[in-house]
């Protein structure tokens, strides 16, 4: 893996001559905004000191980006599928060759540990390769239907249905996977013959722009991949309600609900928050459950939509399970991303303040803190909170941090109540050796996915991934994303006379 930053070699075009704010991408070039204004990212591990700056794009620049994308999309849709796939493979190669800039940007801007940052980039390159291959497989074929299978019809109509691009896809990823959750939108859109306009998250923007640069350098036509920067709160509504948008793929928090409410007649894919529950039954392998709870609850400091966000353990095994979880928590490394700590600073001061408020509320209502509460700036030490009850905010809110509530339950109904009363429904997991019981519980859980004897996870990236209720609309995963970014086109041949094959 090579190391590089925005100002040297491969990524030099992103930076102004003076080494100022990173540029935004329009029509194949990196440009400074006419606004003369910038937005800044911070370094969560260094008391939120300035990390980098980006162009605050104007509305006219957003218009230009959409117009350029629209102009580029038609010729791209007419580019042979195998050529589209080749360019995606080239982008994946460039990402692997120039991973260093993205990895260090992830550590600085979103405080992701060194190994996980490297994994995010590698996983993203793999995702692009798989998308290219899957696109070739599924977009190269369609359906052929004969009219005589429906009552009242003879065989005189033949319907050919294929998947065609939607047009321009607006891609808005969140801070916690600014590379992976961006390629998971961009790559399916491109293979399907669409153009994309990307709005990177402000925290994580550097890594997203580096990733976009790999696509541009791979030789995609100018305009096909645009990246407009600026605070979501300022340009977000203008982007999501833009008349040239045909589909929106959004991952993030509450904002996504507002995006969905405002979006017009466009295809929508939203992946939002989660309150993933881990149900531990009395017959479970408690060692496995404890390991999965700690991995699921605390990796990347709990800042994953699929983090375990609440444990529902049967009373008879609660003490033993909690003992095992606490032993493992004691071994978690806390510190800097560069040192590859598991627990690193959470993304912002406001996030740390919110997490603290949930802990204070729970403690004031009688919950038991299994570790000492400890915080320095954005860095919060891992904390398990036992004896949580339904009146505590942490029972229902998503902390997005390294604190994990435990509710002791008497039976399956109490466990299911916790899962199904939540306004979220992303994933959940069940630990038991009884597969019949696991399946029964899985069927009763109102979530997009249930993991049996393993922690919640989005990956592998070709698995279907979806939320219900406030956790989102539509399904992700490579195959499903390609489908969301296409629409079905039917061509019907009307024969003058019915025709049947004769054996
Ligand atoms: N289900 C899932 O797959 C995932 C869910 N999440 C959820 O996301 C949350 C944390 O991520 P976070 O990045 O803070 O989420 P946000 O919803 O705050 O931001 C997500 C993205 O939306 C942008 N944005 C902000 N305002 C608007 C707007 N009005 N219109 C359009 N876009 C806008 C942000 O830009 P800017 O940064 O400039 O504000 C960012 O790029 C958690 O709740 C978590 O559960 C996170 C990852 C995955
Ligand atoms: O956005 C998230 O947090 C992810 O979708 C979680 O992905 P993971 O389960 O692969 O960490």
Automatic annotation (TrEMBL):
Domain (Aldehyde dehydrogenase) ranges: 30-490
Coiled-coil segments: none
Reactions it catalyzes: D-glyceraldehyde 3-phosphate + NADP(+) + H2O = (2R)-3-phosphoglycerate + NADPH + 2 H(+)
PROSITE patterns: ALDEHYDE_DEHYDR_CYS
SUPFAM superfamilies in the record: ALDH-like (SSF53720)
InterPro entries given in the database record: Ald_DH/histidinol_DH, Ald_DH_C, Ald_DH_CS_CYS, Ald_DH_N, Aldehyde_DH_dom, ALDH-related_metabolic_enz
Domain of life: Eukaryota
GO molecular function: glyceraldehyde-3-phosphate dehydrogenase (NADP+) (non-phosphorylating) activity; lactaldehyde dehydrogenase (NAD+) activity
Top-rank EC class of the record's enzyme: oxidoreductase
TM stretches of this protein: none
Keywords, ordered alphabetically: NADP, Oxidoreductase
Pfam family name, one: Aldedh
EC annotation from Swiss-Prot or TrEMBL: 1.2.1.9
Family: Belongs to the aldehyde dehydrogenase family.
PANTHER family: ALDEHYDE DEHYDROGENASE
Annotated protein name in UniProt: NADP-dependent glyceraldehyde-3-phosphate dehydrogenase
């Amino acid at each position: 893996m090579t190391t590089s930053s925005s100002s040297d070699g491969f990524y030099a075009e992103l930076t102004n001559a003076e080494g100022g704010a990173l540029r935004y991408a329009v029509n194949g070039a990196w440009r400074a905004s006419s606004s003369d204004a910038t937005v800044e990212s911070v370094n969560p591990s260094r008391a939120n000191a300035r990390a980098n700056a980006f162009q605050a794009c104007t509305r006219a620049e957003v218009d230009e980006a959409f117009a350029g994308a629209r102009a580029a999309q038609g010729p791209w849709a007419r580019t042979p599928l195998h050529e589209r796939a080749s360019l995606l493979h080239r982008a994946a190669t460039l990402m692997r060759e120039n991973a260093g800039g993205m990895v260090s940007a992830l550590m600085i801007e979103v405080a992701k540990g060194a190994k996980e940052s490297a994994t995010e980039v590698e996983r993203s390159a793999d995702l692009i390769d798989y998308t290219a291959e899957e696109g070739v497989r599924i977009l190269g074929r369609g359906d052929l239907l004969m009219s005589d299978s429906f009552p009242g019809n003879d065989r005189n109509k033949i319907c050919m249905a294929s998947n065609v691009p939607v047009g321009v896809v607006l891609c808005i990823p969140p801070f916690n996977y600014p590379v992976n959750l961006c390629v998971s939108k961009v790559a399916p859109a491109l293979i399907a013959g669409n153009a994309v306009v990307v709005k990177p998250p402000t925290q994580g923007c550097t890594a997203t722009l580096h990733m976009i640069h790999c696509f541009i350098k791979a030789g995609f036509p100018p305009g096909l991949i645009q990246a407009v920067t600026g605070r979501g709160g300022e340009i977000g509504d203008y982007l999501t309600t833009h008349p040239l948008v045909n589909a929106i793929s959004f991952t993030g928090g509450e904002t996504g609900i507002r995006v969905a409410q405002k979006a017009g007649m466009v295809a929508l894919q939203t992946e939002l928050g989660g309150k993933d529950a881990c149900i531990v039954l009395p017959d479970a392998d408690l060692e496995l459950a404890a390991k999965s709870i700690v991995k699921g609850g605390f990796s990347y400091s709990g800042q994953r939509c699929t983090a375990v966000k609440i444990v529902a353990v049967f009373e008879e095994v609660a003490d033993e399970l909690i003992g095992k979880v606490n032993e493992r928590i004691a071994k978690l490394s806390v510190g800097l991303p560069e040192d590859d700590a598991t627990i690193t600073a959470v993304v912002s001061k406001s996030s740390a303040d919110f997490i603290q408020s949930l802990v204070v509320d729970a403690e004031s209502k009688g919950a038991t803190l299994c570790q000492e509460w400890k915080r320095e700036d954005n860095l919060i030490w891992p904390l398990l909170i036992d004896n949580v009850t339904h009146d505590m905010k942490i029972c229902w809110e998503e902390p997005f941090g390294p604190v994990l509530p435990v509710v002791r339950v008497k039976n399956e109904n109490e466990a299911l109540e916790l899962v199904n009363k939540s306004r979220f429904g992303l994933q959940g997991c069940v630990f038991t050796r009884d597969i019949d019981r696991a399946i029964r519980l899985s069927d009763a859980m109102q979530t997009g996915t249930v993991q049996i004897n393993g922690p919640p996870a989005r990956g592998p990236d070709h698995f279907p991934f979806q939320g219900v209720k406030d956790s989102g609309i539509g399904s992700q995963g490579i195959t499903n994303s390609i489908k969301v970014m296409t629409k079905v086109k039917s061509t019907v041949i009307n024969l003058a006379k019915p025709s049947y094959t004769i054996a």
